[in-house]
Design brief:
single chain, mainly alpha, two-stranded parallel sheet, about 10% strand, binds protoporphyrin IX containing FE, iron, Cyt_P450
């Protein structure tokens, strides 16, 4: 049995760069980007309703979640004329968590699956064997399962998962340290795609000299995270996908200081730990159970991101998942 596994594409925006530079002008121009603003407004309404429900059901001092904690803090600061914990901040912070926590991780997962389709020798897309059932997610109407594919290169991630975790239980975070190749592949996916290519803007607190340039105090600086990820002094052949960037000669996992998908410093991604856990658990759970198959030849798969500057999104693609 095979069912549909079409991966949907993103909303098309005329020019994210334009929006970054002239946000107010785009508000007045017609175009599909207005869907984003509508979605944004809808999400605000949803969050405001959730806050209202929290107010009605909460026990002050006994927080159940982030919104309750924030409301407790608002109570404490009620009499403070310079209070930071206000309703609008709660709405926007919750919104940021939603937005920052969903698109980023889901794009990484989608992009990662596309990369693994393109580089089957990494994931280990297996040829059909007697133990493989043609069952799972796939394109409606397409038949043949893994057996229609040519014999693949060594099934490295799947072989490692088989050896360390087996098939009797789901992979857990405790396994991460014992899966160096898989860990390296996941790091390489994040490096290769730079799903968030720019860090958030900063303002310089002191006057600064950088590479012969004088930058006065107050200058806005936007870190180009993608430039670190494509730096040939840090990564061998940085425009290619190569998990060896995160492995030493003994095949052990090796980190790299230039790996900064979550940025650096005090304002680095708040959800980095959660995101890394999600990426690990989703990928390993999928690869433990399924053989990934492209629709058509892997050589025809295009990895060019659909949208840059706001975020690197994978192009729409189709994939079949066949149970192992
Ligand atoms: C693959 C997944 C993710 C990537 C690549 C990513 C990347 C980033 C980057 C580059 C920044 C800017 C940090 C800076 O400029 O210093 C950021 C900020 C942030 N991220 Fe993530 N993120 C991911 C997932 C998440 C998740 C799961 C959450 C929450 C549930 C989250 C919440 C946030 C928040 C709240 C900020 C703002 C932090 C601040 O301003 O102090 N992110 N993220």
């Amino acid at each position: 049995m095979e069912t549909s596994g079409l991966v949907q594409g993103p909303i098309e925006i005329p020019s994210p760069e334009m929006y970054n530079i002239f946000p107010s002008i785009l508000h007045w121009l017609p175009g599909p980007h207005h869907r984003i603003f509508r979605n944004f407004a809808e999400l605000r309404v949803f969050i405001s309703e959730q806050i209202q429900r929290h107010r009605q059901t909460r026990q002050p001092g006994e927080p159940r979640d982030f919104i309750d904690c924030f409301l407790d803090q608002m109570d404490q600061e009620q009499k403070d004329s310079e209070r930071h914990f206000q309703e609008e901040t709660l709405v926007m912070t919750t919104h940021n968590l939603f937005f920052g926590g969903t698109e980023t991780t889901s794009n990484t997962l989608r992009y990662g699956l596309l990369i693994l389709l393109k580089y089957p020798e990494v994931a280990g897309l297996r040829a059909g064997g007697p133990g493989m059932r043609g069952l799972g997610l796939g394109l409606a109407g397409v038949h043949g399962g893994c057996s229609s594919q040519p014999e693949p290169a060594p099934a490295k991630v799947q072989a490692e998962l088989d050896a360390v975790v087996g098939r009797m239980r789901a992979p857990s975070l405790e396994d991460r340290g014992r899966l160096p190749y898989t860990n390296a592949v996941l790091h390489e996916i994040q490096r290769f795609i730079s799903v968030v290519p720019l860090g958030l803007p900063r303002a310089l607190t002191p006057d600064t000299h950088l590479h012969g340039h004088f930058l006065p105090k107050g200058t806005f600086v936007i870190p180009l995270l993608v430039s670190a990820h494509r730096d040939p002094t840090q990564f061998k052949d940085p425009d290619s996908f190569n998990p060896r960037n995160f492995l030493n000669n003994e095949g052990e996992f090796q980190s790299n200081d230039a790996f900064t998908p979550f940025a650096l410093g005090k304002r680095m991604c708040l959800g980095a730990g959660l995101a890394r856990s999600e990426i690990f658990l989703f990928f390993t759970a999928i690869l433990q159970r399924f053989c990934l198959l492209p629709v058509g030849s892997p050589t025809n798969l295009d990895l060019t991101p659909q949208c840059t500057s706001l975020g690197n999104m994978p192009p729409a693609f189709q994939l079949r998942l066949v149970t192992l």
